[in-house]
Amino acid sequence: MSDTPAGAYDDLLARVLPAAREQRVWEQADGTMPTLFVSHGAPPTLDDPQWLDDLFAWGQSMPKPRAIVVVSAHWENAPAALSASAAGTPLFYDFGGFHPRYYTLPYATPDATDLAHRVAGVLGTGGPVHQFVNRGLDHGAFIPLMAMYPAADVPVVQVSMPSLEPQALLALGRRLRALREEGVLVIGSGFMTHSFAVMRNPRLAGHTAAFDEWAADAVTRGDVDALTDYRAKAPGADVAHPTADHYVPLLLAVGAADDPTTATSAIERITFGNSIRSFRID
Known about the structure:
Helix content is 36%, strand content 16%. It has 282 residues and is α/β, with parallel strands linked by helices. A hairpin with a 2-residue loop joins strand 8 (270-271) and strand 9. Helix 5 (166-176) packs parallel to helix 11.
């Protein structure tokens, strides 16, 4: 860990920006882009060199997407809505109590107007889709993307969660699935376990570990019924996810995938008693 706020991120940029800029962009011959579930972390993710390196390597393991659609644990709005798509829209620093530098770090992605229109088209079967033109990407979107695509050269649009019901996120993912054939990377950004209780009391770590193991098994078996009924079927659910917001983006990723049984863990680690497991699903 660096003593400078976001110092590890500064080091990452110094090392990887040339490679990030030169990354080969997706072509039709590459086939469908995968869908991802990303455990995104809070701003201090930018102080963790291993986490940053893992995220960057993960981004490099795929062709650079033509665009990114991300659903974050930190935005619930019904019906599903879109974030701002204009270049230069300020980020939404939706966190408190951190060093002032975290509120000035930029992630200025290109204009995503065409992507917003395309996403609105796949979502808008029931009517117009509202866009919050002043709402930039929140930290569930920009923190992982700062590491995965640090050149900030991929258009990004964030889509709100229409509810915290797993079935709603599963359905939203299915509506976004076709975009993957166009080189669009679909990301559900949450946290495999999201327990402040275990951070305060490490003796509860068995609950988060049990939940993490259960979820990994259910995803790789493609057991959608178990994943949507996690409150009743998952061990440690009440400790691992006292609220649903950081869990249900996993269902978005599963819904957007062609075959959940293809899931592989791109990142598999425990941080402050919580699992930051992240999946790639084809």
